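Final paragraph of the annual report: two paired records, presented back to back.
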Amino acid sequence: MPKHDDELEEMRRVAAGESSASSRRGPRPTGRVSMAMVAARAGVSGQTVSRVVNDSPRVDPATRERVEEAMAELGYRPHRAARALRTGRSETLGVVAQTLATVGNSALLQAVAEAAEARGYALAVVTLGAEGRIGEAFDRLHDQGVDGAIVLNEASALARDADPAGLALVVVDAPADPRFTVIGTDHAAGARAATAHLLDRGASTVHHLAGPEGSFAAAERERGWREELTARGLRIPDPVRGDWSAGSGHDRGGVLAADASVEAVFAANDQMALGLLRALADRGRRIPDDVAVLGFDDIADAAEFRPPLATIRQDFAALGEQAVRLVVDRVEGRDVSDPALLTPALIVRASA
């Protein structure tokens, strides 16, 4: 029987009430799965399937669940272009990043991609590079018809000075702004916890291998470090500044390694901490006996450093899910307010 006739027969069985639990459960079909096939599997009309696909409120929860189970069993994927015509939305989100070369940005992008996929949204990614023209990035995303956009980390500073081109925006790590929703990690609290841990293990003060100027996250981590030292009445050394890369951690960390008074270093991210570990080893300084080192992020390889790196863990998965949920809420017209910052966790390992 031709494929078109198969679908008509399925629709006829549904209309005649002939479908049953046993007939709906069967092997997953090959080829394109139609709404009629989903309707037959779920024991509902094609119109009901259409309402579920378009997120209509006119479907009771039990029926919606049955239809969604049938979609999952059959591998049904709504046609994105057809849905865009019906709903006026492309179901595509933009992501704007300064660069994807840093591990933190890559980890957050992965989390955003997984959360978007779970909600049926595609991604369009724009990187800014050295010139950082975020206004042009917004224009490009607007021309691509994205429904909303998520701005990552370093690019957040540029978002304050750019026209968002009518896009629904969620910005990661930025000061509050009425034009968009702000989310992020409590970097200052994480930095205070890192500094406190290094002091509690006996250091007279803590040096800081800081992130680049202009980065909101770097500034907040530096603020937390300063606040903890100030609260204890301790000397605040001049920070040494890198650019998030392991190379800059090695280069700038050499200054710290050459200073015999340095007992403990809080590095603003794990990549710079890695470079610092090498710089200290080059000078023959033992870790943590001579110098304790603690990073930030808890990247996937942090536990494999030599020695394993103590660090502050960011929950990138939770941050990505939150970003996608909130931008979709803005796109779909739901009320959205800036949520509480996510609290990072101290991870103690052999380096500190």
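The closing record of the year follows.
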Amino acid sequence: MGLADFRLRLAARLRDAMPAPQGSVGAALVTGVRGAIPKSTRDLFRDSGLAHMLAISGLHMALFAGSVYALLRLLGACFPYFVQAYNMRKVAAMASLPAAFAYLQISGASFPTQRAFIMLSLFFVAILLGRPALTMRNVALAALLVLLLAPHALRQAGFQMSFAAVFALVALYERGGANFLFATPERAGMMRARQSLGAHILSRMGRYFIALFVTSIIAGGVTGFLALYHFHQVGTYGLMANMLAMPLFGFIIMPAGFLSLLAMPVGLEAPFMALMSFGIKSVLVVADWLTAYPGAVFYRGQSAPAVLPLALTGLSVACLANGRWRYAGFGFIGLALLLARRADRPIIYVYGVGQAVMYESSDGGLHVLRSGRRAYEISLWQRTHGHGGDDAPIEDPPCSESVCFYPLMDGRQFAYVRAGRGLSQACSKADLVLAPFIEARYPCRAFLVDRRHLTKGWAVTVMQAQSGYEIVEPARAGRRIWQAYYRPRPDDG
């Protein structure tokens, strides 16, 4: 309870020290408290492909503990006798471990942060033991430890995205990418001997941006594919956004946040918070600029269930196999791409007893007939369907006080009954009837979904079937309400 109170007080102090919305974003980056971030700002990060900044994971942990590691090595370089007597890499790694644990506690210790802490701890332990830090063995050990602590994490999007990205990057590193992207100490010494200070700085900056470009393509491609599968959308300009925003994030925002925490006990955090606010504002400017372009968000819709295992199998083969066998992995990935968005899509969505109702019209658009207070569910349905929520309103549907008629994609008629006296007309004219507020007491010629099929707090969808239509209840399958579909019940008549 004391730690939770401390996190909330720290988040409030960060929000008060910086203007909105930078303060709420800064509080989320340091403490993991994201409730105060305005919806428009969250949408801006998501649509620009920068949503990973708000979820404290490996990047944040590496930058936070990495700032401690780099600062201690820099301080050690100021004392030559100390550096000669001790291995500063091991000293810095030993001090960075408790710093990473402190950040784990301050940030709320969510599952992604726990995964990042385990991975980074293995990294520092490898340095202490004199072993290579970035190896596939360490990735496997981190994944094994996470699954032993929380086996259900295997099905979470965060686990799959974070480990898939690290998996691909470490595979590149082990296959010679390090020789091109990063200079070894011996090679760096030879370069400094031949270059002037200015040329050396420019060379290092060039290598940084090349490494950022390559890692953004690989990690962005892997996580972008998984984001399309799980969340059905991805930022079209995500690569450009990361190229512009990640230097700000890595060199300004996170180091300034770390220095702010160090300076808080003595009341000297103001300049560091101002620097952090500047970095966050610059990232928001980049995100706002890119999302203003047309087509900034790509919506894909729900994919077939086989897509995920095919894609992960392909990634594993491409990263682990030797010789020409690795190219077989790209075949699996290509097959997964072909099957993307091949899942059957519902034509009617209903939440609760008519609390929210949507249907797919004859033009392929999704239209909201009743929203209630279910904007979140509606937005999820729209993304599952492959829409961004920008469909045009229905123009003058044929309605009476009790029933409305709409054309469906298959050329049939859909009737939405709002009062009991409209049910008879709907059953005689329409092929599919939704009457969420009443229970029919006589047979209906059309396929009928009435109040008997709806339950408060559950989602129901209607899909096309060989015999006409079928009712599907994804929530009863124990999964998310916008995902897997159930078969109809025997009494769905």
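Residues 2-298 form one domain. This concludes the annual technical report; the extension proposal builds directly on these records.
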